[in-house]
Amino acid sequence: MPSPVPDGHVRGALLPIGGAMDLQRRRLILLRFFELAGGSNARIVVIPTASELPDGGREYLEVFGKLGVASVELLPVRERINANDPQASEIIAQATGIFMTGGNQLKLTAVLGGTPVATAIRRANARGVPVAGTSAGASAMSAHMIAYGAKGLVPRYGMVQFGPGLGLTNRVVLDQHFGARHRLGRLIAAVSFNPYLIGLGLDENTAAEIDDDHLMQVIGEGSVTVVDGAGITYSNIHQLKVGQKEAIVGVKLHVLTHGWSYDLIKREVIPPVVMPALSVAPSLEQPAADPEI
C-alpha cells in the first residue's frame, strides 16, 4: 500500500524552483518542501535523471538528511531501462515527497516519458504527494515544456522551442534561471503561442509553490515573473520568419517577490496580508550554476 501523505492537499503541491538553490544558509525553499513532504516523517525520493554528472543528486541526500527526514533515497533512473523497472515505481509509490534535480530537461523527459516511473510520479502527485524540481526539474513539470531557446528581452520568432513535459500541470509554462539568463523574451513568445498558458519565470533561489486550488505563492530571494496573455488583442507571431521581432499588444506582466501570490484561475495578484521582511544574509559562498539549456 502507498505510504500516508501529508494532510491538506487533494492534489500534491508543485514546487518548481529557478535553480542555483541555497542549500547551506537559510534554505527557505528546502524547508518549505520538507514541511510539505511531512517534516520529520517525510520519505523523500530524489530523481537525478536530468543531471549529466555521474554523482548528480547526491548533495541532496546530505541536505535532506541534515533537515531530519525519516528517509531520503536517490533513485538512479538514468536510462529508460531503469524507468521501466517495477521496483523504481514502487519506491516512488512509497514516497511522501519527490524531488527532481537540475541538468537538462530534454534528457529528463526523453528518459522518463511514457514509462512507469513517469506514471508513478503523476499518480503520486494526484493522491497528495508534493513534487519539487529545480531548474531542469522545474521546466519539465508542465505539459508544455520550454525545451531550449535563446536569451533576450524582446520576443522573436524561433527563440523558444517547446517539447512535451511530464504533465503535472497544463495551466502554466515554466522557465528558470530567469533574470540571470535574460529569458523574458522567450517566455513572452511562449505565451503568445497559446495565451491560455500563464508564463512563470523563476529567478534563481526562488520557487513558485502551486497548490491544489491553483494558487501560486512565491518563496525565496528572487522574484517570479508572471506573463498573462489572456488580454492579448494582437500578435503577429504566426506571420514571422525565424529571428524577426514579434509585435504583441495587451500582454500583462507582474513581478512578484517572497510572500506574494497569484491565482492561476482568476489570473489575479494577491498581496501578502503582512508584507514579509526577507533579508539576505551576507555570504562569500556562491550557488553553483546549473548546466541545463
TrEMBL record:
This protein's source sits in the domain of life called Bacteria
Q: Name one Pfam family in it.
A: Peptidase_S51
Gene3D superfamilies to which the protein is assigned, alphabetical: 3.40.50.880
Catalytic reaction list: [L-4-(L-arginin-2-N-yl)aspartate](n) + H2O = [L-4-(L-arginin-2-N-yl)aspartate](n-1) + L-4-(L-arginin-2-N-yl)aspartate
Task: State the InterPro entries in the record.
Answer: Class_I_gatase-like, Peptidase_S51, Peptidase_S51_cyanophycinase
What keywords would UniProt list here? Hydrolase, Protease, Serine protease
EC number(s) recorded for this UniProt protein: 3.4.15.6
Task: Please tell me which top-level EC class this enzyme sits in.
Answer: hydrolase
Function statement: Exopeptidase that catalyzes the hydrolytic cleavage of multi-L-arginyl-poly-L-aspartic acid (cyanophycin; a water-insoluble reserve polymer) into aspartate-arginine dipeptides.
Tell me the protein family, please.
Belongs to the peptidase S51 family.
What name does UniProt use for this protein? Answer: Cyanophycinase
Which gene is this protein's source?
A: cphB
